[in-house]
Design a protein that fits this description.
Layout: H1 4-11, E1 29-32, E2 35-42, E3 44-45, E4 48-49, H2 61-82, E5 90-101, H3 109-124, E6 131-137, E7 146-154
Parallel strand pairs: 5-6
Antiparallel strand pairs: 1-2, 2-7, 3-4, 5-7
Helix pairs in contact: 1-3, 2-3
């Protein structure tokens, strides 16, 4: 059964990846009561790093926004796993943390983060609205251009 969330994604021309395994020694999500914490997701798609390097040195701003979108789709993939396959159990996105691999002097972190925000709002509607921080970094795992982690609230008992 396809969730309403996945139907909205498809309508927006977006799909979830088929797989997304952690690249190191950590769990991809943690469920605690009605909260789900999604570990940092990088811009890997189906096991392949799509965007690498610093924005405005190795990667354009428009490609960094696309990298942020991929991170958000990976977040939704992990969220779907945590919700036992039913993204319609998500009550709201509470918070995003967006880390941008940035060249010296880069200041458009919020623009890059908008890529992830736009995907979550497209998928979840008002439930996808969230607080957010976007910061620059001199490097990220695997030389990823962007890394995003998130916190969600879900219906009681959905993922326990």
């Amino acid at each position: 059964m396809t969730s309403q969330v996945e139907s909205r994604l498809k309508k927006a021309g977006l799909l979830l990846p088929n797989t997304n395994s952690p690249g190191a020694n950590y769990i991809p999500y943690r469920v605690s009561g009605d909260k789900i914490y999604i570990a940092g997701q990088i811009c890997k798609w189906e096991g392949k790093m799509v965007y690498q390097g610093a924005v405005e040195r190795d990667v354009s701003l428009s490609d960094a926004i696309k990298a942020s979108e991929i991170c958000a789709l990976n977040i939704l993939y992990q969220l779907k796993q945590a919700c036992k396959g039913n993204l319609d159990k998500v009550s709201k996105c509470l918070k995003l943390e967006v880390y941008v691999n940035s060249a010296a002097g880069f200041t458009k972190h919020a623009s890059v983060a908008n890529g992830a925000t736009d995907v979550l709002v497209a998928a979840l509607g008002e439930k996808g609205e969230h607080t957010r921080i976007s910061v620059g970094s001199i490097s990220l795992p695997g030389n990823s251009t962007v890394e995003v982690c998130a916190e969600f609230e879900v219906s009681q008992g959905v993922a326990a």
